[in-house]
Specification:
Number of strands: 15
CATH architecture of the largest domain: 3-Layer(aba) Sandwich
Oligomer: single chain
Number of domains: 2
Number of helices: 7
Radius of gyration: 21 Å
CATH superfamily of the largest domain: P-loop containing nucleotide triphosphate hydrolases
Structural class: alpha/beta
Shape: globular
Order of helices and strands: EHEHEEHEEEHEHEEEEHEEEH
Helix content: 25-40%
Length: 251
């Protein structure tokens, strides 16, 4: 999922720009939009059932009609919202605001900021610059990508793996592990190796970069296979090679 962040001062035209960008992006994939409400908050309609459920301390309150569904979650966390969009199969997440989060961004107006990819662009400029925006991954997002892009008619299994930073190995403690851009070439080689195993229909592999602390996710793998044993074999080989060539070297 691509994250396309739009920033600008109040009344700079961010919302108008997004309402024009969203349909243009929809021609390339599914679109989600998240707005930073900040101190304004979001007013729930009084006495409505979904509001009453939320006020009764439900973690999630929702309603479904013939055209749409509405979900109210008891958190104000951008990362949770991004995870929800990615897990739902969204290809492009447009963020309005969230200036404190350092995503590559589009600036509307004269606002000063870091990580600006485009300033006052046309919609066509944004579409052309999509490779410059940040990718966001979840395991479920990789599974949806496999289902969307591969022939599942002969598939009998989807295997997923989520590797995390282990804090304790025997008596040795790991505070963090750190990975740079050089991990990408190995990950692509591993993906190709997985797909070369007979019976594997498709594979998706993502390895996070930067400083990752104990308990944080490192690796996401999703494998589509004709039979479960083929998926187990391919995953085991790839994970062993990843650990041998990269993770052991970091410890």
């Amino acid at each position: 999922m691509k994250i396309i962040q739009i920033i600008g001062r109040s009344n700079s035209g961010k919302t108008t720009f997004i309402t024009n960008l969203a349909p243009a992006l929809s021609a390339h994939g599914t679109v989600g939009v998240i707005k930073h409400l900040g101190h304004h908050g979001f007013a729930l309609e009084p006495e409505k059932d979904t509001t009453l459920f939320y006020e009764s301390h439900a973690a999630i309150s929702g309603g479904v009609d013939y055209e749409k569904s509405v979900i109210i979650r008891r958190d104000g966390d951008l990362d949770s919202a991004l995870e929800t969009l990615c897990n739902a199969g969204v290809d492009y997440a447009i963020l309005e605001g969230f200036k404190s989060r350092p995503f590559p961004r589009v600036a509307i107006g004269d606002i000063e900021s870091e990580n600006i990819v485009l300033r006052n662009p046309s919609i066509e400029d944004v579409i052309a610059a999509l490779p410059e925006f940040e990718d966001y991954f979840t395991v479920e997002g990789l599974v949806r990508e496999l289902r969307r892009e591969c022939d599942v008619s002969r598939a009998g299994a989807i295997l997923t793996f989520n590797g995390i930073v282990r804090e304790w190995t025997g008596t040795e403690q790991t505070e963090y592990m750190e990975f740079d851009e050089t991990v990408d070439a190995l990950v692509e080689s591993l993906r190709q190796e997985i797909e070369s195993v007979p019976g594997i229909i498709g594979a998706r592999f993502h390895h996070r970069k930067g400083r990752l602390y104990a308990g944080e996710d490192i690796t996401y793998i999703a494998i589509l296979a004709a039979h479960r044993q083929e998926a187990f074999t391919a995953a085991s080989r790839a994970i062993d090679r990843l650990k041998r060539e990269l993770h052991d070297a970091e410890e």
